[in-house]
């Protein structure tokens, strides 16, 4: 497990950021990371690992290893006791089951992966094929962005991205494709996962209408950063509105200049 420690510690740090930001009430949010090939060769797998059936088949993930936060786990607990709240699972060679390789937690003996595991695996399967460098998924509940998705005007993807890019230059520089807005679907449903995969073709950060955000990136920290910069923009927007004026925002010419200078199309 020593070789996975830096990834586990990074997930724990990001879990803390989510909690400190106020985006992770109770047990909301989940994080997963594809860590295939990162396990040191000396790691001894439990002789009788727990094997559970998946409702879908994930043949393209056969043999893959994932770190996933546990179901019902609070992000603040993931931060404080990561090895009791993060599991290492392996998809079986048939792709229709997973084995829990770690932990055998005395604290939570029946710890299971996040209830959103199927959605995470569906998205990981897509990422492995189409965006292989993006190995981490972070889902969380940033209030400012959820609030914007309650507005029929702001939840229109083109309008929302123009607005957020206009609040400060770094938003366009760092989130060049903007937010992908996913229309409301039931939490944890296959439909939500499918709609997310469609939106991930053009984006790395999604806004699930009236629910939260999902970001994909090479690391948990980078996934957090994508959401954080967008929340910063939303926060500036709300501060202006609370102060009683509509923000001017960067002009089209200023945004175009940024695109050219930072080579964005
Ligand atoms: Zn959620």
Cα gyration radius (Å): 19 Å
Main beta sheet: 9 strands, mixed
Order of secondary-structure elements: HEEEHHEEHEHHHEHEEHH
Bound ligands: zinc ion
* CATH fold-type name of the largest domain: L-fuculose-1-phosphate Aldolase
CATH architecture annotation of the largest domain = 3-Layer(aba) Sandwich
Domain unit count: 2
| CATH class placement of the largest domain | Alpha Beta
Percent helix, as a range, is 25-40%
Strand percent estimate: 15-25%
Derived from helix and strand composition plus strand pairing, the structural class reads alpha+beta
Distance separating the two termini: 43 Å
| DSSP summary, beta strand count | 9
Which word captures the global form? elongated
CATH superfamily name of the largest domain?
Class II aldolase/adducin N-terminal domain
Mean pLDDT: 93
Uncertain residue ranges = none
| Neighbour order of strands in the largest sheet | 2-5-4-3-1-6-9-8-7
Index terms:
265 residues, alpha+beta, L-fuculose-1-phosphate Aldolase, 10 helices, nine-stranded mixed β-sheet, 9 strands
Question: Would you kindly provide a written description of the structure presented here, covering whatever features stand out?
Answer:
- This protein folds into two domains: 1-141, 3-Layer(aba) Sandwich (L-fuculose-1-phosphate Aldolase), CATH 3.40.225.10; 142-265, Class II aldolase/adducin N-terminal domain (L-fuculose-1-phosphate Aldolase), CATH 3.40.225.10.
- The protein has ten helices and nine strands.
- The chain has helices spanning 5-20, 75-80, 82-85, 117-130, 143-148, 157-165, 169-174, 190-200, 220-242, 252-261, and strands at 30-34, 50-53, 65-69, 86-91, 97-102, 136-140, 179-182, 205-208, 212-217.
- The radius of gyration is 19 Å and the shape is elongated.
- The relative contact order is 0.14.
- Zinc ion is lined by residues 28, 139, 141, 211-212.
């Amino acid at each position: 497990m020593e070789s996975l420690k830096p990834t586990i510690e990074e997930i724990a740090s990001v879990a803390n950021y989510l909690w400190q930001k106020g985006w992770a009430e109770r047990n909301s949010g989940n994080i997963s990371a594809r860590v295939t090939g990162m396990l040191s060769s000396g790691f001894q797998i439990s002789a009788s690992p727990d094997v559970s059936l998946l409702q879908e088949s994930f043949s393209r993930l056969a043999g893959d290893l994932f770190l996933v936060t546990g179901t019902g786990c609070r992000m603040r607990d993931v931060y404080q006791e990561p090895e009791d709240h993060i599991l290492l699972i392996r998809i079986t060679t048939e792709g229709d089951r997973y084995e829990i390789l770690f932990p055998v937690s005395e604290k939570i003996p029946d710890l299971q992966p996040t209830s959103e595991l199927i959605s995470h695996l569906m998205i990981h399967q897509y990422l492995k094929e189409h965006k292989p460098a993006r190995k981490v998924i972070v889902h969380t509940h940033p209030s400012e962005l959820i609030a914007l998705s309650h507005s029929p005007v702001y939840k229109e993807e083109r309008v929302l991205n123009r607005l957020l890019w206009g609040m400060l230059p770094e938003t366009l520089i760092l989130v060049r494709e903007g937010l992908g807005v996913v229309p409301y679907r039931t939490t944890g449903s296959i439909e939500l996962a499918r709609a997310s995969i469609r939106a991930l073709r053009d984006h790395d950060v999604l806004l699930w209408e009236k629910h939260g955000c999902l970001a994909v990136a090479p690391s948990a920290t980078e996934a957090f950063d994508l959401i954080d910069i967008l929340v910063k923009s939303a926060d500036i927007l709300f501060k202006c509105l609370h102060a009683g004026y509509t923000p001017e925002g960067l002009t089209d010419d200023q945004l175009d200049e940024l695109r050219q200078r930072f080579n964005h199309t």
